[in-house]
Glucosamine-6-phosphate deaminase (Symbiobacterium thermophilum), 237 residues
Amino acid sequence: MEVFPDYAALSQRAAEIVIGLLKEKPDAVLGLPTGSTPVGFYDALVASGVSLARARTFNLDEYLGLPRTHPESYYSFMKRMLYDRTDLRPENCHIPDGTAADPEAECRRYEEAIRAAGGLDILILGVGHNGHIGFNEPGAPWDGRTRIVELAERTRQANARFFNNNIDEVPRRAITMGIGTILEARRLLLLANGAGKAPIVQRLVEGEPTPEVPASVLHYHPDATVLLDTEAASLLR
Ligand code: F6R
């Protein structure tokens, strides 16, 4: 665990870890999140000017049924944050297709694509207020693979801010990497910032690992690091 004075420093550190990996392995396979937490990380990565020309990326999740062109699809988010601002090649940017005609087949295809790329060298994670990682909500199986899931009410409420503050517009289902998929990444980096995350960070760091706090599975990963700002760390002993 590392605690930083502010969000900018936390984001910078996350970017430096990825930049270091890319120096060693320019064709590294990066697992990436969306949401508010990683915005500073993407900004720092882009500002560094590091080349992603040979890197491959796989996102954690995507809403089911939302067209890629919708401004709140995770594809659109990634396009704004990273794809359009770096030399990443479009064919190397992977994200589940939430509009696939056969979503179950899409989940299997996605798992296979990760395997074919050689697995994830690093996976960056945010954490939900209820402890979710990707869209693996409390109770999700720890050996789960990429699959279709129902979003928890709490998650839909949290994400309504991106959908005109109208929970009815928030999709009810998503495709997400499973916890089993996540655990196979060679390195995990979980980022959390802000006072709102302090209670879940406390449960994650100080509590017993339990499927009720999906992020607590990080305790079982051999190379997992949690990066916090002081606010997110404020309830830790
Ligand atoms: C997004 C994802 C989610 C978010 C989590 C935190 O791809 O996997 O688990 O990381 O919902 O979201 P923010 O960062 O908006 O607080």
Strands lie at 2-4, 29-32, 56-59, 61-63, 93-94, 122-125, 147-150, 173-176, 188-192, 224-229. Helices lie at 7-24, 39-48, 74-81, 103-116, 153-159, 179-183, 198-206.
